[in-house]
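Continuing the batch. This is chain 6 of the set; chains 1 through 5 are on the previous pages. Same settings as before, nothing changed between runs. Recording input and output for traceability.
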Amino acid sequence: MISRKTVSHGLIPALASGLLGLFASTQGSAASSSASFISHRAVYDLSLGKTSGSSAPSSARGRIVYEFTGSACEGYVTNFRQITEIQSDEGGSRTSDMRSTTFEEADGSGFRFKTDSYVDGKLVESIDGKASKSADGGLSVALTKPTRAKSDFEPGPLFPTAQMFQVVDVARKGGNTDEVKIFDGSDGGMKLFDTMSVIGHETKEPPADPVAANAEGLKGVRRWPVTISYFDPGKPDGEPNYVLAFDLYENGVSGGLNINYGSYALNGQMSKFELLPQKVCTK
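Output for chain 6:
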């Protein structure tokens, strides 16, 4: 499962429509779902995909390392790092490095997040904070970095893992769209995103990535092509900030990445995959 964004980024990932009623039913389905996400570490090699316009880079390369652990008993921990080197037509280059760690309560009640972003080796942004849900589903966010700040949001937003559970549930039932509002601690740590997920038919063909096709833990697992568009709140009819496309496995793994920023896109091919130890959870 992928759902984090770089300095202007996204991934993978890794999305919510939010009133209290939807939030309550979503949390119930996520907690009671027979699906479980496996603890794993995946590495994706990035390359430049489709480009458009004069601002598009002439070349790009990078790597994502994504680690997901936890269960419905102990909550979910995500460690994410994305390094991207962008080369412009003028000959200059820039290397961005985003490192993120999050913890999400299994019942969706809380979310802790810490992100450090570097450009050419220099720290340009550090975000540290936590978010919590009140009894009525309202979201409160408190930051300690870059400065101490607090903000409250209307009931309804989901955290990333709860959202992915919801997308899997929709896919299993044969649904093809899911609109939700999400909070993931990115873009300054005080922002919600409106998201639209489009889910394709279950894929029967072998994965294009050789590593994914042969990985222990992925063989025979159901998967669906998913495209998630991220919008600024209140602007779902405008252009998305970015679009993330990937194969979503039923056990929470992502493959065949494409991160579209508008003027250019990055493709991510799985180059390494390994299962991580997982405690038995009877929930």
